[in-house]
Amino acid sequence: MSDVPGAPADLLRSLTRAERLLSRRMAAVLADDELTTEAWRVLCLLADGQGHPMSEVSAEASLPPGTLTKLVDQLVDRNLVFRRIDVLDRRRIRAYLTTRGRREHARIDERVRASLAEAGVPADTALVDHLADLIARLDPAGRRDNEAAFRG
User: Fold this and answer.
1) pLDDT at 3
2) What's the CA gap between 16 and 90, in Å, rounded?
3) Which CATH number fits domain 8-151: 1.10.10.10, 3.40.190.10, 3.30.43.10, 3.40.50.300?
4) Does the pTM exceed 0.85?
């Protein structure tokens, strides 16, 4: 890309390549359970047990609202997720993992971690922390790309 080590083009290329390779590895692990990477993102977000508004799930999973609704419908049909009206704001719907969803998340999470360890991906949080710092620096207002797209 560039003759200068550390050039911005090298960073972009490296991040893009790493994301694509990681996505492929994750997809292979998740395929055994007939889950997509997007579905896995939703399950991971909901695994904290707090329940999340659908708008937040949409932003965190990087999915437009309509696509998220279809995906959550599929997860509901598989008894992995359920939705409830928010008790504080009855206009909002919150999503939660079912008991089965929590068990499946824990089981699949072990397989994902094993696959990453097999690939030599560090188990510590240093890389995640560095990426989170990069995201915060590039997007100090904390906006999500898809949220801006929805507002047009």
Assistant:
1) 58
2) 40
3) 1.10.10.10
4) no
